[in-house]
Amino acid sequence: MAPFGLMTAGASWLAKSFSVFSCTSTLARCSSVLSATYITPVKYLSSQASGPPKKPENGYLRFVLQQRPDITRHFPGIKPAEIIRKVAGQWRMLTPEQKKPFDEAAQRAREQFKVDQQRYQALLTTEQFQQETQKKKQRLAKRRSTIRKRELNTLGKPKRNRTPVNIFVSEHYAEARGLTPQDKLKSLVQDWRIRSLHQKQIYTQLAQDDKIRYNNEIRSWEEHMVEIGRPDLVREKILPTKRKSAAKAQTIKKGTKKVIDTVKKATASKTVRSK
Q1: Cβ(97)–Cβ(120) under 8 Å?
Q2: For the chain, how far is it from start to end, CA to CA, in angstroms?
């Protein structure tokens, strides 16, 4: 009976092994099908999936993308700003003939971009086209705002005055509760709300002093802007007379220049006729 029992046990073990193997292979096939169906991104032909075409790089940026790996390989651990500085120096040393391949590639990419942009817009519905137009306006407004802020910082525009809450938060931010900046700010606002009027009085006085500082600095700065010919940066409520007079002076200057140019052209034409 022992051999028969061993044979029975062996047969049952083989059956179990075969069933496990078949189940494993089945699961593998199922997982491969699932991965192929759900993990692999599906490429749709609609504009919603592909999105608008990306604006191509100019010749200089193409040169940067080409030279960046070489500089990173030769200078391990170099900072991105230093990489751009080195590549910019190399670009300035190139002759027009050496820059020509990059500029020509950029020109071809721009022409292809126009074709792709027209094709993409043709696939959009009226609602999608309006959404794209609105997004474009928002990006343009944001870009203009950033440029204006940089210009004002370069011209040294004074920083706006702070409120009592701003002063309180800046002084107690280091010991505020919370791990994230949002949590710290929330805890500081709660602490400010539970403070008494007497405790808030010192921050109110500091805010009033800071407001006086800002008003004095902004007036001096705006007067300087009018003097250097930038009345467009002056607030109408603060210096309306000086701003209008500066704008009027610029208009008179432009009109005088036009008159002078007209007189020069008339004189030149008379000289030619007399000859």
Answers
A1: no
A2: 137
Query: Which overall architecture, per CATH, does domain 49-123 show?
Result: Orthogonal Bundle (1.10)
Q: CB-based contacts of 73: which residues, under 8 Å, 6+ apart? A: none
Query: Own/partner pairs for 150-159, CB < 8 Å, 24+ apart?
Result: 152/233, 155/221, 155/225, 155/230, 155/233, 156/221, 157/218, 157/221, 157/233, 158/214, 158/217, 158/218, 158/221, 159/214
Amino acid 85: pLDDT: 92
174 versus 6: which is more confidently predicted?
Answer: 174
Residue identified by tokens 């490429």 is: 43
Written out in words, the top-level CATH class of the domain with range 164-247 is mainly alpha
Q: Which amino acid is at 82?
A: E
Helices (H), the chain: 2-34, 47-50, 59-74, 80-93, 96-122, 126-154, 164-172, 181-194, 197-227, 240-274
Q: 49-123 and 164-247 share one CATH topology?
A: yes
63-115 residue pLDDT tens: 999 999 999 999 988 999 999 999 999 999 999 999 999 999 999 999 999 99
Burial 35-68 (b: 16+ CB within 10 A, else e): eeeeeeeeeeeebeeeeebeebbbbbebbbeeee
**Domain residue limits, the chain:** 49-123, 164-247
Q: Is the pLDDT of residue 211 over 80?
A: yes
pLDDT per residue as tens digits for the range 141-191: 999 999 999 999 999 999 999 999 999 999 888 888 888 889 889 999 999
* Residue 64 vs residue 271, higher pLDDT: 64
Is the distance from CB of 63 to CB of 91 less than 8 angstroms?
A: yes
User: How far apart are the C-alpha atoms of 59 and 46, rounded to whole Å?
Assistant: 31
